[in-house]
Specification:
The structure holds two protein chains of two kinds. Chain A is mainly alpha-helical. Chain A has helices at 3-9, 13-25, 28-37, 58-88, 94-120, 134-139, 141-163, 169-192, 219-226. Chain A is globular. Chain A starts with a helix and ends in a 5-residue tail after the last helix. Residues 1-55 of chain A have low confidence and may be disordered. By secondary structure, chain B is mostly helical. Chain B is 58% helix and 0% strand. Chain B has seven helices and no strands. The longest helix of chain B has 28 residues, at 53-80. Residues 1-51 of chain B have low confidence and may be disordered. The chains are: A mainly alpha, B mainly alpha. At the A-B interface, helix 1, helix 2, helix 5, helix 7 and helix 8 of A face helix 4, helix 5, helix 6 and helix 7 of B.
Amino acid sequence: MTDSALRELADDPSSRKRFLKMMGGAGAVSAFGVLLAACGDDDKKDAGSTSTPAASSDDGMKEDLAVLNYALTLEFLEARFYKQVIESGIVKDPKVGSIAKKFGQSEQEHVEALKATITKLGGTPVKAPATKFEETLEKGLTAVLETAADVENLGAAAYLGAAGRITNKEVLAAALAIHSVEARHAAALNQLLGRGFGGKKGALNGTIPDGAFAKGMDEAAVLAAVKPFLA
Amino acid sequence: MASSQLVAPELASIKVHGVTREAFLIRSTLAAAATYGALSATPYITRALAEDSGGDIDILNYALTLEYLEAEFYTLGIKQVKGLSSDEKKLAKEIRDNEDEHVDALAATVKKLGGKAAKKPTFDFGGAFGGRAVFLKTANTLEDAGVSAYNGGGPLISSKDVLAAAGSIVQVEARHAALIRLIRNKPPAPLSFDKPASMDAILKKVGPFIKS
C-alpha cells in the first residue's frame, strides 16, 4: 500500500473541519440543513428548505413531530444534566471533564437542531422539562457517571426504537445522525466506568450491552426509565 | 414484508431503475474501485432506487461487504499485529465477534428478501498490520466509516424491518468507534451529528483494501 492510500484511509480531517465549520458557523436551522444536505441527495438545491415528500400525509407528519418532540425532551434532559454536572465542579479529572463538556455541548446542539426542525415542520417544540438531578450529584462522581451512562444508553435505545415511526426521510437521516452519537457517548461513559464489553445481562450497562445487535426501546419504557429525573 | 413484492429476484441484477443497476452491484463497484483507483464515477444511490426490496437488497449487500471487510481486518490483525496490549487484543476480538455476527445476519436477511448475498471479497490491508498504532488508526477509520455508511444508507431503506436491523447494527458500530477512539486517546464522539456518507465517499476510504 502506498503512503497516499494510507493517508486517504486515515481520518479525513479536511472534510471534517469543513463540516464542523459549517455546523459551528451557522445557526441551528442551517446547521440542520447542512446535516441533511450531507445525506447525499444531489438533486436537491436547498436541502434546508422544507421539502417533505415522504411525509406529505398528515398522519406521517404528526407522528414525525411527536417523535421529534419526544427526542427533544430526552435531549433537554441530557443537556441539562451535563450542564449541572459541569457547573457543580464535581469532575476534577481533565480527561473526564473534557468528555463531559463535549458531550454536553453535543446534547445542546441536538436540542437546538430538534427545536429548529420541529418549527420548520410547522410544529411547536415542547418546553424543557423540570428536572431533578440534585440527588445524583450529591452521591458523587461515580454516581454521576453511572447516571450519564444510563441516560445515554436510554437515549440510544430511544432513537433506535423510534426510527421506524419516522416517515420523512430527512427527519430519519437526522435521527440516525444523532442516534449514533448517543451510542458513542454511552459506550465511552461505560468504558470510563470500567464496565466490560457485555455488561450485565438485561441491565443498561456495558459498552456493548446488547451484544452485536442493539435493542431499541419504545417510548413508554424510555419515559418510565427517565421519570426519576423529572421533577 | 416487502420481499413478497420482489416478483422476480433474478431480474433485480439486471433491471435498471433510472441509474445503471450495475452501479449498485457492490462487488463490481468495489472491484472497479480497486482497479481504477477508488473513484470511478459511481452514481450515488438515489432514493428512488430503494423504493422496492431490490433497493434494500443492494443496500444490505453494501453493508455486508463492509462487515466482511471489518471482520477480516480484525481477524487478521489479531494474528499479525505486534505490540497490542492485552486490553487492545481483547477489544479487537470482541469487536471481531460482533462483526462476524453482522456478516451472518446481513447475509441471512438478503436471502430472506429473495436476494443473493454478496460474496466475501479478497482483501489486501497493505501496511495496516505493521504495528499497534497503524492498526488502531485503521480500525478507527473503518469504524467511523461504517457508522457513516449506515447513516447514509438508512434513509434509503424501504422496509421497516430492514431499517430496524440496520439501526441495531449501526449503534454497535458507533460503540466500536467510540471504544477504539478512547483506546487511541482520541475524542470518542468528535461530532455532534455523525455525518452520513455516500457510497462514493465510503469507497474512497475502503476501496484500496478490496482486491477483488
